[in-house]
């Protein structure tokens, strides 16, 4: 599963995503913009 953005992650009830989980992407083009291992935490 991949998500277009954090709104899609939240709509799916999957937020927050953690490094290693399906759908997690890292870096400026990913969902974890601060690269701390937690995506869509806010």
TrEMBL record:
<dbReference type="Pfam" id="PF05901">
    <property type="entry name" value="Excalibur"/>
</dbReference>
<feature type="region of interest" description="Disordered">
    <location>
        <begin position="18"/>
        <end position="42"/>
    </location>
</feature>
<protein>
    <submittedName>
        <fullName>Excalibur calcium-binding domain-containing protein</fullName>
    </submittedName>
</protein>
<dbReference type="InterPro" id="IPR008613">
    <property type="entry name" value="Excalibur_Ca-bd_domain"/>
</dbReference>
<feature type="domain" description="Excalibur calcium-binding">
    <location>
        <begin position="2"/>
        <end position="41"/>
    </location>
</feature>
